[in-house]
Write a structure and sequence with these properties.
- The structure is a single chain.
- The protein is of the alpha+beta class.
- It is built from 5 helices and 24 strands.
- A 6-stranded mixed β-sheet has the order 3-7-6-11-5-17, sandwiched between helices.
Length: about 300
């Protein structure tokens, strides 16, 4: 990033702080969530249930939080699978699309969610991490005017996004996460990081990049990590406009009016908040202008 004056630096720092709390603001202003707490390594709060999994090991001292998608039909099927001894798989939590949470093992007990994995010099993350499985079908295939998961379920256009995973060469379709899920995931990450002093919030794709792609580009992992850990660099992604002219609006929808003239192709913007179809951005050359644009007309600048 080019050097800027002290005044500009102060202005951008303020923008970064707003970007870090953007996801938190959504949690406060959006779907109502109960206050969660942890007692004796178990989650307590409204919307929380507990089903013991037999697929667990000995005691651990958690150091990381690992986010996954279930790649299944729904939360119930994921819970059934992760509590089936024949699956030889488990996680600490399953997060439903409505924001409901089912805990399968205490947070200080090893679950089998990471598999062959490595991160930050650690080999085998099962022994030092908490795993959250989020109800999400994962990658989809376009079939006519709908989108099909590997297990056959079809989704309409309102429940998918098209994006390129950072570990892949080409873009593809992905099942979108819901706002209650994203907000609840942030709430959980904040609580777990604070309670256990966790070092990082990472994805299965980070610890097993040769074989995993979850939670995938539909989940704002970098924003959640930045909001929880206060890392400005994690939320300062830059994009270039690919449409000939792109409207930048006062909210995430065509019903909101434009905040300035349409952005011409090649304009560089900085990501402030990511939604399924809309991204909140600010102009890289004029940080005083910010608004919402359709994310299908943005291309990430590598290395940003």
């Amino acid at each position: 990033m080019a050097r800027i004056s002290l005044a500009k630096t102060k202005q951008k720092t303020g923008k970064r702080k707003r970007a870090q709390v953007a996801v938190s603001d959504r949690a406060a202003a959006g779907v109502k969530s109960s206050v969660l707490s942890i007692e004796n390594h178990r989650l307590v709060g409204a919307g929380v249930s507990y089903v013991e999994t037999p697929n667990s090991g000995g005691e651990i001292i958690p150091r990381y939080l690992v986010m996954h998608y279930t790649a299944g039909k729904n939360a119930k099927s994921a819970i059934n699978w992760l509590t089936n001894s024949e699956s030889k798989a488990s996680a600490h939590l399953v997060l439903g699309r409505d924001g409901s949470i089912c805990q399968l093992a205490p947070f200080n007990v090893k679950t089998w969610h990471a598999g062959v994995s490595h991160w930050d010099g650690v080999i085998g993350l099962n022994g030092c991490s908490i795993g959250i499985e989020m109800d999400n079908a994962g990658p989809l295939k376009k079939v006519g005017d709908q989108y099909q998961a590997w297990f056959g379920t079809l989704y309409d256009e309102g429940h998918v996004i098209n994006a390129r995973h950072r570990l892949d060469d080409d873009a593809r379709w992905w099942h979108a996460y819901t706002e209650p899920q994203i907000q609840r995931a942030l709430e959980l990450a904040r609580l777990l990081v604070r309670h256990y002093g966790l070092k990082d919030v990472i994805g299965h794709e980070d610890i097993a990049p040769d074989r995993k792609r979850d939670p995938g580009p539909a989940f704002p992992l970098e924003q959640v990590r930045g909001a929880v850990l206060g890392r400005a660099e994690d939320v300062q992604e830059r994009y270039t406009v690919t449409a000939s002219l792109l409207n930048i609006r006062g909210g995430p929808g065509v019903e909101f009016s434009s905040v300035t003239d349409p952005l011409p192709r090649g304009t560089t913007v900085v990501l402030l908040e990511k939604r399924n179809r809309w991204n909140k951005v600010e102009l890289a050359e004029n940080g005083d202008i910010e608004g919402w644009v359709r994310n299908q007309f943005l291309e990430k600048i590598e290395g940003s």
